[in-house]
Design brief:
By secondary structure, this protein is α/β, with parallel strands linked by helices. The protein contains 10 helices and 5 strands. It has a 5-stranded parallel β-sheet with strand order 2-1-3-4-5, sandwiched between helices.
C-alpha cells in the first residue's frame, strides 16, 4: 500500500505497449508473422499449439515473449528458432506501416494532461527504440515525454533496473518518488518494486493473466481501464 512510502510522488513512468498503446492489431500482425516464418522453416502449428506456447512464455516470465514462443514451437531447435526470429524481425517496418502507428488507448491523453497540470513529471520506461517518441508525437502525446532519454542506455532492456534509473535521472527524481505503470509483472512491476517505486499493473494484452510469484511482486494497484488507472494514480499521488 502507499503508506509504505515516506516521500511524495513527483513522477510517473509509463510503458508504451499496454498502458498507452493497446497493441491489439500489433499482436495480431506479429502472431501472423511468427506463424508464417515458422511455416517457411517447415514448422506448422495449430492455433491451440500457438496459444499454449504464448501462455507458457508469459507464465515463465520470458523477457521476450516472442522469442520464447518461437523457441517453444521450434522444439527448442536453436538454429531454426534463430532464423525464424530473424525473419520476423525483418518484417517490423512492414507491420508498423500496416497498423498505421501506435494504437492510442482511448482516454489516456486526458490522464496525461491532468497529471502534467498537477506538476507530475512524465517519463517512459520502455523497450521501444528512441524513434518511439516521434510516433507518440504523431499520436498527440509526445509533448508529455520530452524530458527523458527516450532510449535505453547502451541497448539495455527491461527488466534491467538501470533503464528505470536512467529515466528517473532524466526527470530529476529518485525511484522512491516515482510510480511505474506497466502491463507486465516481470518486466515492469518487479524491477520497479526492487528500486522502491510505487507500481500500477495495467492488465491488458498478451500478459493480462500474468501473476506475481510472491508477495514481493504484487503491485500497489491493478487496473483494467483508463478510469481505474486515473483513480489508482490519484490515490498513490495523494498518499
Amino acid at each position: 500500500m502507499a503508506d509504505r512510502f515516506s516521500g511524495p510522488v513527483r513522477a510517473v513512468l509509463f510503458d508504451v505497449g499496454g498502458p498507452l498503446d493497446t497493441e491489439v492489431e500489433f499482436e495480431r500482425l506479429i502472431d501472423a508473422g511468427i506463424s508464417a516464418a515458422l511455416a517457411q522453416e517447415g514448422v506448422h502449428v495449430s492455433d491451440e499449439q500457438y496459444a499454449a506456447s504464448a501462455e507458457w512464455a508469459v507464465e515463465s516470465f520470458a523477457p521476450s515473449a516472442y522469442q520464447a514462443i518461437i523457441f517453444r514451437l521450434c522444439g527448442s531447435e536453436s538454429q531454426v528458432a534463430r532464423r525464424t526470429a530473424e525473419a520476423v524481425a525483418a518484417g517490423t517496418e512492414r507491420r508498423w506501416r500496416a497498423r498505421g502507428g501506435i494504437e492510442l488507448r482511448r482516454g489516456v491523453t486526458g490522464v496525461l494532461e491532468r497529471l502534467a497540470a498537477r506538476g507530475v513529471g512524465l517519463g517512459l520506461a520502455t523497450n521501444h527504440p528512441g524513434s518511439i517518441l516521434s510516433e507518440l508525437h504523431r499520436a498527440g502525446i509526445g509533448r508529455f515525454f520530452d524530458r527523458g532519454p527516450r532510449i535505453a542506455p547502451s541497448g539495455m532492456r527491461k527488466p534491467d533496473s538501470r533503464l528505470f534509473l536512467a529515466e528517473c535521472a532524466a526527470l530529476g527524481v529518485g525511484p522512491d518518488a516515482c510510480i511505474m505503470v506497466g502491463d507486465r509483472v516481470d518486466n515492469d512491476i518487479v524491477p520497479a518494486k526492487l528500486l522502491g517505486m510505487r507500481t500500477v499493473l495495467f492488465r491488458t494484452g498478451r500478459h493480462i493473466g500474468q501473476q506475481p510469484r510472491s508477495w514481493d511482486e504484487v503491485p500497489d494497484a491493478e487496473v483494467r481501464d483508463v478510469d481505474q488507472l486515473e483513480r489508482a494514480l490519484d490515490r498513490l499521488i495523494s498518499g
